[in-house]
Amino acid sequence: MKSPEPPSYNKAEKSVFPYLFSFFFLIALADSWRRAEVNPLLLLEVEGRRNLWKFVSAMFPPELSSEFLALMLRPVLETIQISIMGILIAILIGFPLGILGTRTYSVGGVLNEANTLGSPARRLWGYFTYSSARAVLSFFRSIPEFVWAFMFVRAVGLGPFSGVLAIGVAYGGMLGKVYSEIFEAVNERPLEALQSTGANKLQIFFYGWLPQVIPNFVSYTLYRWECAVRASAVLGLVGAGGLGQQIEISMRMFNFHEILTLLGILFTMVAVVDTISAKVRAIL
Amino acid sequence: MNGNPPERKVAAMPWPAHQAPGRSNLGNYAVVGILLALFVWSYRGSEIRLTELFSREGGSQILAYAKRLFPPDLSPNVIQEAVRGTFETFAISFMGTLLAAAIAFLVVFFASRNLIYSGLLYDMEPKRGWYRALRLVPYLLSKGLLNFLRTVPEMLWALIFVFIVGLGPFAGVLALGAHTGGVLGKLFGEVLEDVDPQPVESLQSTGANKLQILFYGIVPQVLPQFISYTLYRWEVNIRVAAVLGFVGAGGLGQRIYVAISLFFENQLLTFLIFIYVLVTVVDYLSAYLRRRMI
Questions:
Q1: What span, in angstroms and rounded, lies between the C-alpha atoms of A228 and A211?
Q2: Pick from A29, A38, A159: which is nearest to B173 by CB?
Q3: Which residue, among B151, B189, B171, has the nearest Cα to A43 in the 3D structure?
Q4: CB spacing of B260 vs A154 below 8 angstroms
């Protein structure tokens, strides 16, 4: 065994990376500054100041009449319902695609050793399913849920249903990716043991794979559910139901005191959901 | 490969017992019951029409919409618009994330309990209640500010800033900066709370003042994680920046909003392709930077 070389600080200093990085960083900064039309003075100008003041002063006092609060109950519940149904659809999309997108399931790994040695056709088929599942997942999650929501509003009409579909598709992509990462990290020995008893792939999956990953699986899904609640609370801005629709209405009507109340409601709702999800995760 | 790998010999780790640790049947039924009830409740409330979705009419509606997307509109002026939108989106996410990092970095040191309020740094201080109470003020203020920034979603910040500074990408930058500033503040705060106290203590014993301790004992420890979190949020923000335009805050979102509203589905597909490419490129860039810098 050779003793490891002492780290050379000199070498690090000679790297061109810092210079290149600073160079590109500065270019990006200058270009972005121009393109994003950054103009801090806008905040200080009379116009901006007046708008800011108008906004803040109109927010107080928050609208706390009981009719308004009672009216808001329904959107809050609807938001939660959208998030639950959305996550369910996301699981339905992400789970099968996640399995197919698992490298150790579709290509390579213990399960496919025989294939790798044997027929190239099966190997190719494995690669095909693997890469197409991955591609679909990455497409689903690259398009933001807002765009999905707006497209679904066009396709199936206004209302919470399009919100559900949007969350389902966008979060299906995220869940599928993470599921496949979880599946790839399992202990392979039980799988091999099952294979040697002659179990087929699906049986191996359900008896060897799934029991190992369930805790991770559930806790990640719960975490995504928290995100889905936040997302479905604002999806209404494009007409997909829930609390967002109310926010949009109040904003368009310049009823800023309602906005403050809605923010309070949103904050409470998210806090409650986070607590529930943390409790459930602690039990697991 | 038939040879036994060496690790097989030390199979000391016991397999989990066959009887699962007893959770009562009743509890299991209750969990299933609650989940079912939740499902039914959400199914009703969210006006889902799954039958319609899989029926001929509903399914064909979506299919018809998807068909209208093709082929993507690749005429030069659309491409030009898409490229401009892509760069604008990039610019919004870049400036927004920088602003957020700046906000979080300025505020977080006041919002972490072990730096501003109690703990090692204040061990030697004479016990004076009011002095401590005085320090509680910036602590609570900054903590509250971060919480507030984080609670308001980006889209709502965008609506607010569009109202204040007018339509355009600058409102998007401010919106991203505000929300992400709150998020990064929380993440940075968690890093600060895990800081290794030893360098801090040894600096303190040399007589360094608080500011010196901050810059020589704490910042070097936390900077890699700060950068890592900032890069991670940048990846998130590029997706957000792509939709901020829905409320008038510039970028690709504005083009997408127009394309969807006016039924220019072919243009929409072009923009979607550009989003896909942009998001993928930024993910790779961020992963590369993380590898190189940390």
A1: 26
A2: A38
A3: B171
A4: yes
